[in-house]
Design a protein that fits this description.
Length: about 140
Protein backbone atom coordinates (compact mmCIF):
# COMPACT_ATOMS: atom_id res chain seq x y z
CA UNK A 1 0.00 0.00 0.00
CA UNK A 2 1.28 3.45 -0.95
CA UNK A 3 0.16 6.85 0.26
CA UNK A 4 -1.87 8.99 -2.11
CA UNK A 5 0.74 11.39 -3.50
CA UNK A 6 -0.88 13.44 -6.21
CA UNK A 7 -4.41 14.18 -7.27
CA UNK A 8 -3.16 14.03 -10.88
CA UNK A 9 -3.11 10.21 -10.61
CA UNK A 10 -6.87 10.21 -10.16
CA UNK A 11 -8.77 9.60 -13.44
CA UNK A 12 -10.88 12.50 -14.72
CA UNK A 13 -14.23 10.82 -13.93
CA UNK A 14 -13.17 10.34 -10.33
CA UNK A 15 -11.79 13.90 -10.09
CA UNK A 16 -15.18 15.19 -11.23
CA UNK A 17 -16.97 13.08 -8.60
CA UNK A 18 -14.46 14.20 -5.94
CA UNK A 19 -14.90 17.87 -6.87
CA UNK A 20 -18.69 17.54 -6.67
CA UNK A 21 -18.50 15.87 -3.24
CA UNK A 22 -16.11 18.52 -1.91
CA UNK A 23 -18.19 21.35 -3.38
CA UNK A 24 -21.27 20.00 -1.57
CA UNK A 25 -19.30 19.52 1.68
CA UNK A 26 -19.83 15.75 1.78
CA UNK A 27 -17.73 13.40 3.90
CA UNK A 28 -17.11 9.92 2.55
CA UNK A 29 -15.01 7.45 0.62
CA UNK A 30 -14.17 7.43 -3.09
CA UNK A 31 -13.19 4.04 -4.54
CA UNK A 32 -11.31 3.92 -7.83
CA UNK A 33 -10.33 0.53 -9.23
CA UNK A 34 -8.33 0.04 -12.42
CA UNK A 35 -10.00 -3.21 -13.53
CA UNK A 36 -9.02 -4.08 -17.08
CA UNK A 37 -10.46 -7.59 -17.08
CA UNK A 38 -12.64 -8.42 -20.11
CA UNK A 39 -16.30 -9.05 -19.26
CA UNK A 40 -16.35 -12.44 -21.03
CA UNK A 41 -13.16 -13.68 -19.43
CA UNK A 42 -13.42 -16.90 -17.43
CA UNK A 43 -10.79 -16.85 -14.75
CA UNK A 44 -10.65 -17.51 -11.03
CA UNK A 45 -8.31 -14.51 -10.67
CA UNK A 46 -10.95 -11.92 -11.58
CA UNK A 47 -11.45 -9.70 -8.56
CA UNK A 48 -14.06 -7.58 -6.86
CA UNK A 49 -12.55 -4.53 -5.18
CA UNK A 50 -14.40 -3.68 -1.99
CA UNK A 51 -14.26 -1.38 1.03
CA UNK A 52 -16.03 -2.63 4.13
CA UNK A 53 -16.82 -1.27 7.55
CA UNK A 54 -17.96 -3.61 10.34
CA UNK A 55 -18.37 -6.43 7.81
CA UNK A 56 -20.72 -4.45 5.55
CA UNK A 57 -19.82 -3.28 2.05
CA UNK A 58 -19.56 0.50 1.83
CA UNK A 59 -18.78 0.39 -1.88
CA UNK A 60 -17.35 -2.06 -4.39
CA UNK A 61 -16.25 -2.32 -8.01
CA UNK A 62 -16.15 -5.30 -10.33
CA UNK A 63 -15.44 -5.67 -14.02
CA UNK A 64 -19.04 -4.81 -14.96
CA UNK A 65 -19.00 -1.36 -13.30
CA UNK A 66 -16.88 1.31 -14.95
CA UNK A 67 -17.49 4.41 -12.88
CA UNK A 68 -15.73 5.23 -9.61
CA UNK A 69 -17.90 4.86 -6.53
CA UNK A 70 -18.53 7.47 -3.82
CA UNK A 71 -20.17 6.52 -0.53
CA UNK A 72 -21.15 9.11 2.02
CA UNK A 73 -20.00 8.52 5.62
CA UNK A 74 -20.52 10.32 8.89
CA UNK A 75 -17.50 12.19 10.26
CA UNK A 76 -15.60 10.30 12.94
CA UNK A 77 -13.47 7.20 13.40
CA UNK A 78 -14.04 4.34 10.94
CA UNK A 79 -12.47 0.86 10.99
CA UNK A 80 -12.23 0.00 7.30
CA UNK A 81 -11.19 -3.14 5.50
CA UNK A 82 -9.85 -2.80 1.95
CA UNK A 83 -10.29 -6.03 -0.01
CA UNK A 84 -9.83 -7.64 -3.40
CA UNK A 85 -12.11 -10.69 -3.37
CA UNK A 86 -11.55 -13.56 -5.80
CA UNK A 87 -13.34 -16.86 -6.43
CA UNK A 88 -10.48 -18.76 -4.81
CA UNK A 89 -10.25 -17.65 -1.20
CA UNK A 90 -6.49 -18.21 -1.16
CA UNK A 91 -6.11 -15.45 -3.79
CA UNK A 92 -8.13 -12.87 -1.80
CA UNK A 93 -6.13 -10.00 -0.30
CA UNK A 94 -7.09 -7.45 2.33
CA UNK A 95 -5.84 -5.04 4.97
CA UNK A 96 -7.46 -2.97 7.72
CA UNK A 97 -6.99 0.63 8.65
CA UNK A 98 -8.61 2.91 11.20
CA UNK A 99 -9.45 6.23 9.55
CA UNK A 100 -10.46 9.50 11.22
CA UNK A 101 -12.63 11.62 8.91
CA UNK A 102 -13.46 15.23 9.73
CA UNK A 103 -16.35 17.14 8.24
CA UNK A 104 -15.80 17.46 4.46
CA UNK A 105 -12.91 14.94 4.27
CA UNK A 106 -12.89 12.39 1.46
CA UNK A 107 -10.93 9.16 1.75
CA UNK A 108 -9.63 8.33 -1.73
CA UNK A 109 -8.68 4.68 -2.37
CA UNK A 110 -7.10 3.73 -5.70
CA UNK A 111 -6.68 0.02 -6.35
CA UNK A 112 -4.82 -1.70 -9.17
CA UNK A 113 -5.66 -5.39 -8.71
CA UNK A 114 -3.80 -8.22 -10.40
CA UNK A 115 -5.02 -8.45 -14.00
CA UNK A 116 -4.72 -12.07 -15.17
CA UNK A 117 -5.59 -11.72 -18.86
CA UNK A 118 -4.06 -8.46 -20.06
CA UNK A 119 -1.98 -8.47 -23.22
CA UNK A 120 -1.27 -4.76 -23.56
CA UNK A 121 0.22 -4.11 -20.13
CA UNK A 122 2.12 -6.34 -17.74
CA UNK A 123 0.17 -6.76 -14.53
CA UNK A 124 1.80 -6.72 -11.13
CA UNK A 125 1.85 -9.92 -9.09
CA UNK A 126 0.20 -8.33 -6.04
CA UNK A 127 -2.76 -6.03 -5.60
CA UNK A 128 -1.63 -2.41 -5.31
CA UNK A 129 -3.43 0.24 -3.21
CA UNK A 130 -2.93 4.00 -2.79
CA UNK A 131 -4.97 5.45 0.07
CA UNK A 132 -5.16 9.00 1.36
CA UNK A 133 -7.47 11.60 2.85
CA UNK A 134 -8.19 14.80 0.94
CA UNK A 135 -9.45 17.66 3.09
CA UNK A 136 -11.79 20.26 1.68
CA UNK A 137 -10.07 23.25 0.06
CA UNK A 138 -9.85 26.40 2.15
CA UNK A 139 -12.46 28.96 1.18
CA UNK A 140 -11.34 32.57 1.17
CA UNK A 141 -14.03 35.21 1.32
Amino acid sequence: MRALDEVKKIPWRARKLLHRAQKNGKTGVLLIAEIREPIRSFTNKAGIVSIRENGLDICYRDRLTEAPKFAELAPGLHDMEFMVIRMRASKTSSFRRAVELREGDVLVALCDPVQPNTFYRKSSTVDSWSVGILSPPERVS
